[in-house]
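Example record

One chain of 100 residues, shown exactly as stored in the release files.
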Amino acid sequence: MVQEYIQYIKKYNMKLFVYKSLFTCLLIFILFHLTIGYIARSYEAKIYNTFSKDKINFIKEKIRSEIKAGIEKDQILSDEDTLLINQFLEKISKELNKKK
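Predicted structure tokens for this chain:
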């Protein structure tokens, strides 16, 4: 009778251990998805939205319209900008000629 009771207790403890282990694993899984999984999905959504085809097409059209508007102007650059760009190009030209 005592032997049967001990076996029953061991069997019961083993069942209890399995249930507790499964419950703990389930909680860890849910916790993982609520924290790290959420962060990963939010970054994935940001990347997808940044490089979506609609966004790329919008940027292309915006660049084209700005180029067309620049072509229609009489003077695209201000005098100060022209001087800066000219000096910059001269410096690059000198450095390239030194390398030869």
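Notes: The chain has one domain: 2-99.
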